[in-house]
Amino acid sequence: MSKEAVEILKNLKVSRHPFGKVSDAEIVKMRNQFAESERAQLKDMQKRFNPTITDTLINGVQVYIITPQNIKPENKGRLMLYIHGGGFPHRPEQRRNTIQMLSVI
């Protein structure tokens, strides 16, 4: 495991869902807390890896084109396509997953 992955896992914050019925207000509060955590992680990743990030549309679909600053010679000219499979990403903070993957290229 990379040194960066170990650091991320060490600093990972765990959220626990309450048992029983959860009110709409509690759900909103949890979502806001999670979004704040995502923003902090994205900010850290952008600072550490400094990728170029372009938000654009391809055939009407919003995409993020994330280009790492340093690419290993054996990966020059290659493309990695990451399709989010757990639902629709609706916040820019969610691109932190892709930045993590590109950090090892």
Could you give the topology of this structure?
Layout (H helix, E strand, L loop, with lengths): L2 H8 L13 H26 L2 E7 L2 E7 L28 H7 L3
Description:
The mean pLDDT is 76. This protein has a two-stranded antiparallel ribbon. It is 39% helix and 13% strand. It has one domain (3-102). The chain has 105 residues and is of the alpha+beta class.
Cα-atom radius of gyration: 16 Å
Main sheet? Answer: 2 strands, antiparallel
Query: What is the count of β-strands?
Result: 2
List the helices and strands in order. Answer: HHEEH
Number of domains: 1
> Which segments are poorly predicted (pLDDT under 50) over 5 or more consecutive residues?
none
The number of helices is: 3
Strand order of the largest sheet: 1-2
Instruction: Bin the helical content.
Output: 25-40%
Distance between the termini: 14 Å
Gross morphology is extended
Find the structural class using helix and strand composition.
alpha+beta
Mean of pLDDT? 76
Strand residues, percent: 5-15%
